[in-house]
Amino acid sequence: MRRLVGRLARDLLVIPLTAFLVYQLAVRLPLVEDNDAKSRGVADLAEKLRARLGADEALGFLRPWQRLFGAAEADGRLPTIGENPAYDRARLGEALAGSLTVGGLALGFALCIALLFAGARVLLGGRRADGALELLPTIAYALPSFVVTVLVVRFVEDAANDAVAAAVVSIGPGVFLGAVLHDALRLEMERPYARVALAKGRSRLGVLVKHALQNALPSLLDAIPPVATAILAGSFVVEKQLLNREYFGAIYVDSALRGQAQIEVMVVATTTFAAILVLVSLAAELVRLLVDPRRRSAAAEEANS
Amino acid sequence: MTPRFKGRLGLVILALVFVGSVGYALVGERLPGECVFGTVPGRQATVCALTFSGLWRSAATGLLSGGAATLLALGLALLARRAGGVVEQALVKGAEVVFSIPDVLILVAIAFGAKMLRDAGKLDLSPFWLMTGSLVAIGWAAPMRMIVNRLRSLEEQEFVFAARSLGATRGRVLLVHVLPLARPFVLAIFLFRVPTTILTESTVSFLLGAGASGGSDASLGAFIAQNYRTLMVTGFRVVGPALLLFFLLIVGFHWAGQAVQARADRT
């Protein structure tokens, strides 16, 4: 528990640190007048932009959040330059909900793929079909989300929905998790307790589900944080190119393409993504603490002594 | 399939892709008749020319960024092991922090910064070199952690203790005794880094368009992004060859890396 609290404190610190660094990077970049503003005779846009961003203030990095969440001079939206869209709290909230739906579904699908893949490989161990499954991680690795997106666009009618997008994102991470789980399950199936259970007449599937899986789960949970980053990258692709909806990832990419017009959106989006990754990592650690039988018994021993 | 067989297959795939693209560059455009896949809709160039050009750009990005990132990682790992103590811990922790941030997130943020600098006339770097540099800046972290662990385990061998007891300094032990043994492992890391870099570059180019990787002379990812909407009209005629070459390039490097790593693990 002490380790979890320490990690919680350390990881949560990453969120304001990201907000500060991204903001500092953004306000130190040269701000210029865009053509649209020039044509409307807006003078000294760069100065106004710096003032709007609070570039010379110590807590200036909180300015985009103040605008969104109702502190002084807030209007509940992030202003932009020219004809680029302004994002208000409700719009960004909806976008974030959309992204979280796709990401959450993708993580769920990835876990299902992992369980199926690893289970099938352990049960088929040594047979020809297992040899074919062995190639799957390489194939999945060489087919990133954008390639799967292209294939889905070609073969699936009405592909622009959240479930299809999540499935597209989940294939690579799912097979990667499956490979990690397979290695852990294979080790567990060779341990004495699994051999005893098999010798007593339990089926291979029974030993796998009742005994080996719970001991292999910590390896799976340890692999979830890097997989969350892969899902995040994949969700950018599907939101922009497959769904073509204004979800959070698509807003982030569009803001990057618009440059200084949407500095505040970039700052808010980057910090939000950092927060999501930190929270996923902490959730995985918490679940690991709850499901890992070895750690549970170690904690119980520690409490008794 | 054994790692050795995979490695050979990977090398054969890479050799075929290389010979095919070099052959096309040397004689392809002089042959009578058009490219079998025709021209790209809305452009004068043939599918063959743009696909092979994309292949070269993707491969060049992967090899340059992968090589530079591996060298940087090796240098930092040697520095960390040479210095030890707080310096090593700081370098390894720094690598962990960089590794935990998604590549695509950073590359999009770098593209954002580059656009602002370019708009202000303060960036005169071609998109290709900007992408290559960005990939090196984020790509050193994972290899560095792995190389540090490898050096650490190699330094526990008996011959290292023997060299130390004979008076060899830490730097000499690292460079003369440990580094030669770590060479196959570093080569495997490089071979794994190349496809990872190509995948990241292609994903970002697919997201941001050709401008991210090299203007009109697009990488495979950017070429696919520009043309995948033609799938409904032309089928796989335009993007099919690019998808196939992309797949072969990744699989070839990955399998070659697996074979070299298996060999390195045996030593």
Q: Which features does this protein show?
A:
heterodimer, A: 305 residues, mainly alpha, MetI-like fold, two-stranded antiparallel ribbon, 77% helix, flat, B: 267 residues, 0% strand, globular
Quick check: average pLDDT of chain B?
86
**What percentage of amino acids of chain A are in beta strands?**
under 5%
Structural class, from secondary structure content of chain A?
mainly alpha
Radius of gyration of chain B: 22 Å
Using DSSP, what is the number of strands of chain B?
0
Under CATH, the topology of the domain at 100-253 in chain A can be stated as MetI-like fold
> Ranges of chain B with pLDDT <50 over ≥5 residues?
none
Top-tier CATH class of the domain at 100-253 in chain A:
Mainly Alpha
Helix content of chain B: over 70%
How many strands, which pairing sense, and closed or not: the largest β-sheet of chain A? 2 strands, antiparallel
CATH superfamily of the domain at 100-253 in chain A: MetI-like
Question: Which architecture name of the domain at 100-253 in chain A does CATH use?
Answer: Orthogonal Bundle
* Order of SSEs of chain B: HHHHHHHHHHH
What are the secondary-structure elements of chain A, in order, as H or E? HHHHEEHHHHHHHHHHH
The most extensive interface, with participating residues per chain, is:
A-B, 44 and 42 residues
Mean pLDDT of chain A: 81
Distance linking N and C termini of chain B: 21 Å
- Outline type of chain B: globular
